[in-house]
Amino acid sequence: MKTPIPYYLGQILESVRDEDGGEVAEYIPELANADPDKLAVALCSSTGHVYSAGDAEHEFSIQSISKPFVYALALQELGLDAVRDVVGMEPSGEAFNELSLGRDYRPVNPLINAGAIAVNQLINGVDSSVEDRNARLNEYFSRLAGRDLSVDAGVADSELNHADRNLSLAHMLRNYDIIKDDAHDAVLSYTHQCAIRVDVRDLAVMSATLANGGRQPVTGDKILDADVCRLTLAVMSSCGMYDGAGRWMAEVGIPAKSGVAGGLLGTLPGQLGVATFSPRLNESGNSVRGVEAFKLLSSDMGLHLMSTDNRVGTHPIRSKEEDEDHAVIHLQGHINFSAAEAILYELQGYDLDACRVALDISQVPSLNRVGRRMLKEGLRRLREGGNEIAVIDPDGTLTDRELSDGTVVPLADAEDYHINGEDVRD
Ligand code: GLN
């Protein structure tokens, strides 16, 4: 059986492909020349399973999506008190590049440009040279992505040639002793940070690292403390979408960060990271098709953070028993998107050739809408692959057993599948 998640992601892309509003960022030629039709999405579970659809290998500059990660690095290196000395944690309700500082001259949060420039200056110590700071950032972002990332020198150079606004922010910050470097050097390392090249899979994995309490889920590398991730995600949820942050949390409910190259990253704590790419932007500088794709991810996959239908529990596969022609997979706990993802991933790896497969949901108290849909699609795919399928559901938890092809999954008695074989899960 092949897990249907890449197909679901592909469907989301097709649903937003006709959305051709918005314009690519035009303030530098490198971004103005971007192909407006590129479109991609990727998702990474907190266990490190990565799925994608569309132009997933297309690289682009990370831009403002770097900001929460650099904030996390500053918290990790210096602790909250030192970081709070230079930047607040309140939503600004203003555009990302607003020429504003808070009442005490600190930028109000680390995700607007003023705050991001101030935070960048903390990395590797305030006395660090620009070169050493940039090297530290390259190494850190490469660890987060789990591969060596490069910097788009063309983007970095032209950002610098069109940086009057960011330079004015840096001058204000230096005037009020928030930063030590001169304005040009401060903007030099900030634009370097924004010019790191990534693809959507990198962003999904980086985001899943935040979701996973700082352990990169693919490499297993422990990069950040769980407390740092919690703080970063909290700030992302209130400030990540700038002047649209409140409406975003209400409508989409996935802490997120956008970048002007067209990337959009979202994190569900404890569950997963997700990212989209499409370069046409709305007036707030957020990807038009990315925003639409996130709305679908939130509604169709049940990923709204405030959803009361989103409990996460123990591993959803309690055990698996099998002999030559039977397999029974015993599930447990509430089945939502993340639980169903884990089940489908395991099923994909099992060797179930032409045997009778039953999913035992007698220990499953509930399935949410997306969990039910995904489990049923897994069963349909198993049957398509030549298996006979059934569910063991003595309490009728799977209220609707009709599959997408109109057939109904048969019920089985636990006795019919009684196997004395050994339990193959650890
Ligand atoms: N490099 C861009 C800037 O500083 C990043 C802004 C963004 O992605 N929103 O203006």
TrEMBL record:
Assembly mode: Homotetramer.
Protein family per UniProt: Belongs to the glutaminase family.
Any one Gene Ontology molecular-function term assigned to this protein's record: glutaminase activity
Protein name as annotated: Glutaminase
Binding positions (substrate): S64, N113, E159, N166, Y190, Y242, V260
Catalytic activity entry: L-glutamine + H2O = L-glutamate + NH4(+)
Enzyme Commission number(s) from the entry: 3.5.1.2
Protein keywords: Acetylation, Hydrolase
GO BP: any one term: glutamate biosynthetic process
PROSITE patterns: STAS
Organism: Corynebacterium phoceense
Sequence ranges assigned to domain STAS in this UniProt record: 328-392
InterPro entries reported in the protein's UniProt record: Beta-lactam/transpept-like, Glutaminase, STAS_dom, STAS_dom_sf
SUPFAM superfamilies membership: beta-lactamase/transpeptidase-like, SpoIIaa-like
Gene3D superfamilies according to UniProt: DD-peptidase/beta-lactamase superfamily, STAS domain
NCBIfam families, A to Z: Gln_ase (TIGR03814), PRK00971.1-4 (NF002134)
EC category: hydrolase
